[in-house]
Amino acid sequence: MSKVLGSETICPHIALFPSAGMGHLTPFLRLASVLLSNNCKVTLITPKPSVSVAESAHISSFVSAHPEVNHLAFQLPSLQPPNSSTNDPFHIQFDTILRSVHLLHPLLYSLSPPLSAIFSDILVAAGVISVAVDLGLPHYTLVTFSAKYLSLTAYISIMVSDPTKLSCSAEIEIPGLGPVPVGSIPPPYLNPNHLFTSVFMSNARALPGVDGILINTFDWLEPETLSALNSGSVFAKFPPVLPIGPLVPYELKRNEECQYLQWLDVQPKESVVYVSFGSRTAMSKDQMKELRDCLWKSKYRFLWILKSNKVDKDDKEDLDTLLGHSFFEDTKNRGMVVKRWVYQQEILAHPAVGGFVSHCGWNSLSEAARNGIRVLAWPHHGDQRVNAEIVKKVGLGLWESSWGWGIENLVKQEEIQKMIGELMEDEKLRITAKKVGLL
Ligand code: UDP
Ligand code: UDP
User: Fold this and answer.
1) What is its EC number (predicted)?
2) Per CATH, which fold does 3-243 belong to?
3) Catalytic machinery residues
């Protein structure tokens, strides 16, 4: 990626600007790592303070492993949310970052060597457009979710004049893509005043103003959607969409032995069900008990990453209080529960892992696909039902749509057990997932 002019080598200098949450930071750090290994200079702009400990810890460990990165901590002003539609700290942070982007201008103007381009998170794209125009820089946005969810969001933002009426139909027909069930649309999208919705919609509406869209997906996973977007059948005018996924994890330095990895080392090949709902999905106490009882009675080995609170620093309850001591006594020879951050990329790459019960966060899915791990989709919110449809359609996993949104319904232990049985025993699924891992 470097240009030789006479005897001088010119390396592109790229500014990367992620929004909030590990689901946004992780793909940016992965992209930064790819750019660095292609001789680019990287300026990483990270909003400060971050919402979770995970974000600040990953930023500092990435920056200390790559001292060549120019790290700019972008101090956020304290802004009042414009309404009280949500108390989700990640949604509030999305909005704060978007409303503060104009403050970036002086930070970027004075960089040396000058920037060659800005790669912004899709959730800040609308604000970065004018900064990039002022600085005369190309501006590409990185989409951290699927091409299908991108199309759905962009379509609603441009074509649906009254989203509150969407609930009157069963499906929404997107040209070039076919119908999307209204039940897969995140419920906040039906309320234009919801902060989550206003952030997603304003950025989607602004997309014609970016030079291109980089997206963490790949052709095998979303062939029709990518070709529909790039052929102009969804929108006549849309920036080029370049699939760059699945983004390859960068090496994470471990400062300690992880008991759960040592435990995986002594489990038979593909015998363990890995259960995790990502970095910011907490399960209700009742649902936790159903899942516990399912794993207790099931014959399968399991590694369960438990979260009882959305934000890691508030996640303080201990495991015995949440699940009861006898569960641990009875399952100690075939299961492990962890209540802290884990190295998911190492878990999914471990030969002992057979299946993944996942909330269907897009990063988790692309990591599963990359490692050839089959998935039981249990979407909880946001883009996750759209992602679950993709998983089912391509044969990477199973999805029982009657479970609804994880945050709303109580799924009983027998139902979970049945689906885990299918996940672990279905040979066709196992083979398809393995094939994806070999692509
Ligand atoms: N992750 C991890 N360890 C954890 C929880 C999450 O490494 O304990 C990583 C996971 O591998 C993924 C990201 O955090 O890369 C979560 O993003 P995803 O899109 O799957 O879900 P979100 O957390 O945004 O809901
Ligand atoms: N971490 C987290 N929440 C916590 C504690 C740690 O998200 O409550 C994350 C953090 O992102 C860090 C990773 O866990 O990168 C590993 O944390 P650890 O405590 O093992 O520290 P490290 O190995 O980075 O020294």
Assistant:
1) 2.4.1.-
2) Rossmann fold (3.40.50)
3) 24, 121
